[in-house]
Amino acid sequence: MHYFPMIGAATLAAALTALNVQADSPLPASWTFWQQGSGHFAAVLDHRTALSSTGAVQLRYLDGDSSNSFGAAHQDVDAAPFRSQRLRFSAKVRTQEVLGWAGLWLRVTDANQRVVAFENMFTRGIKHNEDWARHDIVMDIPAAAAQVQYGLILSGKGVSWLDEPELAIVGRDVALTRIPWEPTSGGAWVESPPEEPAP
Question: What's the pTM?
């Protein structure tokens, strides 16, 4: 099994030595935050709730129509080490008063930025108040993969946290967490969930 450290971990750890660990701070440059729908969300690096010394990514609903909205944060990595491999994205997640759902998500694109693999925790989302627990997405990475995006999503009201993320190549004996979807010739995904994050 091969483990891959997260982007910017050493840089982030060094920067945190100059911060008050009791205060939130902006997400590091290696993380991208975005939102979709009529609701409004915020993302910060939380040092008070975090399990790790580097801080936990926090997504928080602010206001607006939460029924069709989500916020998400992700990192990007080169897919080259994972091509034609079975990849496990695992992280610890915590939720507070989540009325929709929260969870991990993992997306793979090719050189043309076409989605070639995708999964989130839409069908097994974390709700209400849940303490820190490790969750996984296990996916086969296509040979055409160019980029892997992984992160946290919050759909609807509440607060969610992600800490201690890890990418690891695992054996074929490790079960997939969902049956792979097949893209159509036009690039659309068969049976894609309504909460699929868009670029």
Answer: 0.80
CATH classification of the domain holding 55? 2.60.120.260
In angstroms, rounded to a whole number, what is the distance separating the alpha carbons of residues 73 and 105? 9
Phi, psi of 16 (to 5 degrees): -70, -20
Query: Exposed, middle or buried by CB within 10 Å (0-12, 13-18, 19+), for 82?
Result: buried
Residue 182 lies in a domain: no
CA distance 90 to 74: 13
* Distance separating alpha carbons of residues 26 and 41, to the nearest angstrom: 14
**pLDDT tens-place string over residues 93-123:** 999 999 999 999 999 999 999 999 999 999 9
**Measured distance CA(159)–CA(69) in Å, rounded:** 14
Query: Taking the mean position of all CA atoms in its chain, how far away is CA 90?
Result: 9
Q: CB of 66 within 8 A of CB of 39? A: yes
Q: Which residue from 114, 122, 23, 22 is spatially nearest to 72, judged by alpha carbons?
A: 122
The per-residue pLDDT for range 16-26, each reduced to its tens digit, is: 444 444 579 99
* Residue ranges making up the domain that contains 141: 2-8+15-170
CB 80 within 8 A of CB 70: no
